[in-house]
Write a structure and sequence with these properties.
Number of domains: 2
Number of helices: 10
Distance between the termini: 34 Å
CATH topology of the largest domain: Rossmann fold
Number of strands: 10
Order of helices and strands: EHHHEHEEHHEHEEEHEHEH
Helix content: 40-55%
CATH superfamily of the largest domain: von Willebrand factor, type A domain
Structural class: alpha/beta
Strand content: 15-25%
Length: 327
């Protein structure tokens, strides 16, 4: 436990010690006065019950003093606080094909707008991370509860290079699990033993689905499914497609909804088009939130003040009942 104003603790100790000394001196003066007046036997011959009735109300009032002063010092402790939350990794396609203008103003701009709407729609308990992928995948924003940071990371995206859906999935899984993730070797089925199980984590992939190389996307989706991570895919573009200029060449590109559907369904997720009005809402509702505990600093001024009030109340009631006065 720590306090914001440690000097108040010193004051509490000094005041409490002074109050105790004053009370002891007062009782000695009272006993001496009774002895001098000829009532010394009354002062020294009281029963144990009488002694308790005499001193307990004042002891309670004195005990309230340091408790109240410690509360004024604003004590703080780290306690485990229940928190409802989940993790979302936005896997955002920044390949050259995202420059296509078959959606207005471009696939990249449309995906950025849809992703920003999605992030804004997330509850505060969901941590959002951003991963940009082309030929390779790079985590540009670690999962955070500050959703403005995630939106800023999406808005910084610039298109260039090819597309590797499989690499995006594996790096996203690595971020979720906290360890490197690769495809199983020699055709082995993926298992949860080495990765763990993360049902409260979701990968949301914004892409046109045109996979140009890298790890097999469907196999990577199977690894995600084994780890309990669903992949929700958002298709950006049109089946008719458009052309983009890359290194002086005109290349045709079109939305591959079939590939994105396979990736999503293999992991237990679903495919949606970016233009669907209910796409963001449907994905948000599909995210599993779990109850976890997180250590957070909690101020204890209230409990200390409450305890001091209890002592003051008891001391006052007992003093009034037994002696006809509080002090």
């Amino acid at each position: 436990m720590s306090v914001h104003y440690p000097l108040v603790i010193v004051v509490a100790v000094l005041l409490t010690a002074g109050a105790v000394v004053a009370y002891v001196l007062l009782q000695r003066r009272r006993s001496a006065a009774l002895t001098a007046s000829g009532f010394g036997s009354l002062a020294g011959g009281r029963s144990r019950r009488a002694v308790i009735r005499r001193h307990l109300p004042y002891a309670l009032l004195l005990a309230a003093l340091p408790i109240l002063l410690v509360g004024l010092a604003r004590p703080e402790a780290e306690l485990k606080v229940p928190k409802v939350g989940g993790t979302v990794i936005l896997a955002f396609d920044v390949s050259n094909s995202m420059k296509a203008t078959d959606v207005n103003p471009s696939r990249l701009a449309a995906a950025q707008a849809a992703a920003a709407d999605f992030v804004r729609d997330q509850p505060s308990g969901v941590d959002v991370g951003v991963l940009l992928f082309g030929d390779t995948a790079l985590l540009t924003q670690a999962p955070t509860g500050d959703h403005d940071l995630a939106i800023a990371a999406v808005n910084r995206a610039e298109a260039g290079g090819g597309t590797s859906l499989g690499q995006a999935i594996l790096v996203s899984l690595g971020t979720i699990t906290g360890k490197p993730v690769a495809l199983p070797k020699d055709g082995q089925a993926p298992t949860t033993g080495s990765l763990g199980y993360f049902p409260s984590a979701t990968i949301v992939m914004f892409s046109d689905g045109q996979d140009t190389g890298g790890p097999d996307a469907e196999a990577a989706s199977e690894v995600a499914a084994a780890a309990g991570v669903r992949i929700q895919t958002i298709g950006v573009g049109t089946p008719q497609g458009a052309t983009v200029q890359v290194d002086g060449f005109q290349l045709g590109t079109a939305l591959d909804a079939a590939e994105l559907t396979t990736v999503a369904q293999t992991s237990g997720g679903a495919y949606r088009a970016a233009g669907d009005a209910g796409a963001v809402d449907a994905i948000t509702k599909s995210i599993d939130l779990r109850l976890t505990t997180k250590k957070e600093p909690v101020e204890l001024t209230g409990p200390f003040a409450g305890a001091a009030l209890v002592f003051l109340t008891l001391g006052g009631l007992l003093g009034t009942r037994w002696h006809g006065r509080i002090v």
